[in-house]
Amino acid sequence: MTKLGLAHLTALELAPARLVTEAARAGFATVALRFIPATADGPAYPTQTGTEAHRALKRVLTDEGVRVSDIELVQLKPGIEIASLAGCLEAAADLGATALIASGDDPDGPRLTAHFAELCLLAASFGLRVDLEFMLWRAVGNLAQAAAVVRDAGQRNGAILVDALHLTRSGGRAADLITLPDHWLRAAQLCDATADAPATETAIIAEAREGRLPPGDGALPLGPLLEALPGDAALSVEMPMPALDASERIATAFNAARHVIEGRDRGAGRRDCHGWA
């Protein structure tokens, strides 16, 4: 059974300990934590092994029965120093994470691919996978570009994070996933959105960061997406909705995603079916 996870962006205003508590209350089995800011002034909550704050977070995770699925967001920019991330990855591994999320932010394809491969090698030393997330406004903006980086990097722990919103807004389809190796598709993020795509890059970014809908409340083809994913792919919900209180938002995210997952007969798909817990 696939255990449902909560992406930190759903309630990024909450520090990790509170996020874990609220996630457990709603029914989530895992959380993803924002260790590295996605924007220059964005919030992030890094920890460091050996500190009391880190130990306290581990205790909360244990007490609530919640696991850390992954951390984010490593932006693969031209001048990134991969070795400087070792402490961050050590802390993630110590919390039990299995992956970290990276974005492609370098227009030089060969250099970006080399940095991704280097990040994979460093991550492997901590037992972590690297999921490359494509977003329409970044250099790696669609599924085909992400797949090319993962393929050319040639690292066993390199994979692609499929976000339902980013896949659709970049022109991708669920059917595009079926041709990719299962080991490239280890995680996916669920949400929903209106049928009308934003017309500008600014609007696209705004939708992704604060304009998503609960799974099942919009027009994204979530059923075909679930059918196209490997049956053991990790599923999480990324649903920032500032209009809702954080606790209500998290509970809504869980209940909506559960309804979508339970309501699908995925036995007809090429891949094995999903469950939730």
Estimate the strand proportion: 15-25%
DSSP summary, beta strand count: 8
Specify the biggest β-sheet: 8 strands, parallel, barrel
Mean pLDDT metric: 94
- In whole angstroms, the N-to-C terminal distance is 7 Å
Task: Summarize this entry quickly.
With 277 residues, the chain is of the alpha/beta class. Helices cover 36% and strands 16% of the residues.
What does it look like?
The protein has helices at residues 16-26, 52-64, 86-94, 109-124, 143-153, 164-169, 201-210, 222-228, 246-262, and strands at 4-6, 30-34, 67-76, 99-104, 129-133, 158-163, 187-190, 234-237. By secondary structure, it is of the alpha/beta class. It has an eight-stranded parallel beta barrel, surrounded by five helices. α1 (16-26) runs parallel beside α2 (52-64), α1 (16-26) packs across α9 and α4 packs across α5. It is globular.
